[in-house]
Design a protein that fits this description.
alpha/beta, 2 domains, L-2-Hydroxyisocaproate Dehydrogenase, Chain A, domain 2, single chain, 308 residues, globular, 9 helices
């Protein structure tokens, strides 16, 4: 069975681990710097297995040696956002955390696929790729799956329909410049543009962009974790199961959509080994312009992390 390690056993990391255990697709290990924290949560998950019918147990530790021979490493460690804080404000502090984690991934799991969750997401993907030296196929960021899920939830709420019937596509950086694509958002195959007026669609797009901040403002001392955890687990499942999925994710663009040398959310095929290919949709001039503008915003943050 494949091995998945989750770095950071806080709310997001524990949710990722629990979802993977629930899916039964891999052996799961959590790592956290707080002594006993990852072990305690892993033990709690394992004790739920007989009740919920899980066939996989979780384990935990506070040393990076637990990453040894991992097939996938999910990085959730870092400082979370607080009310009124922009994701970009986390750059310096979380870059230090991700560099340390990435160095240990390179040492202990040199063949792994790395999935970043730590914010600011796209910039932290760059830090991880630069530190590990891994090819772009093996370093991705969980953002598009989450942002698309939020849009799908808001569409379902607006229409009073099952969220499981809605499929959305949100591209661009994981921040205020993200690019929701109503033309590629459907309810059982029916474009949302056929079901809602332009004003309601625009309101949903705005709420999608503010989705994370809305939760932070409500929780005060916490940020979102159920949806981010489930989104990361979906990416992990695609990698370890070998069942390729077309999902939006943050990847290192090398000319696709006219974007180069930056991480940005694009539609991709994820499967065994990580990134299989980037899908180039036929975007309108306005959609492509918004995507390029979003990529430039990410590139500006990444520029602050490059050696001078």
């Amino acid at each position: 069975m494949k091995k998945v390690s989750v770095v950071g056993a806080g709310n997001v990391g524990a949710t990722v681990a629990n979802e993977i255990v629930r899916l039964g697709v891999a052996e799961v290990t959590m790592v956290d710097v707080i002594e006993g924290f990852a072990e305690g949560k892993a033990l709690d998950m394992s004790q739920a297995a007989p009740v919920l019918g899980y066939s996989v147990y979780a384990s935990g530790g506070n040393g990076f040696e637990a990453l040894d021979s991992s097939d996938v490493v999910v990085v959730t460690a870092g400082i979370r956002r607080k009310p009124g804080m922009d994701r970009s404000e986390l750059v310096s502090a979380n870059a230090k955390v991700v560099r340390d984690v990435a160095g240990n991934i390179k040492r202990l799991a040199p063949r792994s696929v790395v999935i970043l969750v730590t914010n600011p997401l796209d910039a932290m993907c760059y830090v991880a790729m630069a530190e590990t030296g891994f090819p772009r196929e093996r370093v991705m960021g969980m953002a598009g799956v989450l942002d698309s899920a939020r849009m799908s939830a808001f569409v379902a709420m607006e229409l009073g329909l099952s969220p499981g019937d809605v499929r959305s596509m949100v591209l661009g950086g994981h921040g205020d410049s993200m690019v929701p694509l109503p033309r590629f958002t459907t309810v059982n195959g029916v474009p949302v543009t056929e079901l809602l007026g332009a004003d309601r669609i625009e309101a949903i797009c705005r709420r999608t962009r503010d989705g994370g901040a809305e939760i932070v403002n409500l929780l005060k001392t916490l940020s979102a974790f159920y949806a981010p955890g489930a989104a990361a687990a979906q990416m992990v499942e695609a990698v370890v199961s070998g069942r390729s999925r077309l999902l939006p994710a943050s990847v290192w663009a090398q000319g696709e959509y006219g974007i180069r040398d930056t991480f940005v959310g694009l539609p991709v095929v994820i499967g065994e080994g990580g990134l299989k290919r980037i899908v180039e949709l036929r975007l309108t001039a306005d959609e492509l312009s918004a995507l390029k503008k979003s990529a430039e915003a990410v590139k500006a943050i990444i520029a602050t992390l490059r050696p001078s």
